[in-house]
User: Which sequence fits this backbone?
């Protein structure tokens, strides 16, 4: 596994763990101020942290738990990479969990303090 693959794995784990907190502000802390976002279960194109937080407040009510099924990491530079592939989300109350298969693309960029942040996130339900 190369270095960028390890970074992508660590960053996805941070993102997944932020979802498990159930707090939108924890998830949105991983997004750049000027991010763009095409969410899984919304027809809207979101931009910025405020719009992302609004989406996650609603999405986190579904108790999401995600795992990567297939992925590819493409290094763009020392400070940017594209992480894309397929992930499955378990959604719903504990007694009625459902799996949603989805596609994803994250563009992660390193900020001036050397924090990795999501500059763009696209997620969509996998077509049948």
Assistant:
């Amino acid at each position: 596994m190369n270095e960028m693959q390890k970074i992508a794995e660590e960053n996805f784990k941070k993102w997944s763990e932020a979802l498990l907190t159930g707090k939108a502000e924890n998830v949105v802390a991983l997004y750049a101020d000027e991010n763009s976002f095409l969410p899984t279960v919304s027809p809207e194109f979101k931009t910025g942290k405020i719009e992302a937080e609004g989406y996650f407040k609603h999405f986190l009510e579904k108790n999401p738990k995600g795992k990567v099924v297939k992925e590819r990491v493409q290094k763009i530079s020392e400070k940017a990479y594209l992480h894309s592939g397929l992930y499955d989300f378990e959604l719903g109350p504990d007694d009625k969990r459902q799996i949603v298969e989805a596609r994803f693309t994250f563009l992660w960029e390193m900020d001036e303090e050397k924090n990795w942040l999501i500059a763009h996130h696209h997620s969509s339900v996998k077509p049948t």
